[in-house]
Amino acid sequence: xxxxxxxxxxxxxxxxxxxxxxxxxxxxxxxxxxxxxxxxxxxxxxxxxxxxxxxxxxxxxxxxxxxxxxxxxxxxxxxxxxxxxxxxxxxxxxxxxxxxxxxxxxxxxxxxxxxxxxxxxxxxxxxxxxxxxxxxxxxxxxxxxxxxxxxxxxxxxxxxxxxxxxxxxxxxxxxxxxxxxxxxxxxxxxxx
Amino acid sequence: xxxxxxxxxxxxxxxxxxxxxxxxxxxxxxxxxxxxxxxxxxxxxxxxxxxxxxxxxxxxxxxxxxxxx
Lengths: 192, 69
What we know:
heterodimer
């Protein structure tokens, strides 16, 4: 299917938006892994669930580049952004009042701790999708594949996100085994 | 439980990248259900339930005739 250039522009802009969103998510997840391995900041269970929600946002975008545009893919991404917002807001409220056994986990970045950053990230994702829908509308018919360069970039970025997820999976196996997760050490490395 | 969450998440992303669409969707649905279940389990406290009593506030005093009177 060859589409006129005028009809292709919103589709290309949508592809660029999705690519930028996935690159941002990949950068955030990479930063989290660097903090975990370089600074030895072992993630708490709710922190891990927030990573799951961020990978869920990427899932909708990977489906978009593999199978073409569908409002369902955007819906899945927004659903996981909402999940991220709920989990991070609850964790922030858990630790907002200092008391024994409850404090923000990890070091602050620009004065904000990780769950507070997660709220900012979740709101930013939902805001970005709202702006995208307002500016580009809901339907973006295009050729079956995105532009070659864009498609290659999306493929590499998708592979990177999948690899990050597999590294996280391995890390969870080491940290939690088949039991509950703790921030005091890696269970399978004898840290507990 | 966290292991199952990440196992289904990895499966869904792998299937989304190179695999059947139905498997990706199914694995992601299972992952979402497990994530919500684990989240509720993590925030539940035997002492407080789902409440957060440390956030409660109380009025120091109520003006006897209201603020604008």
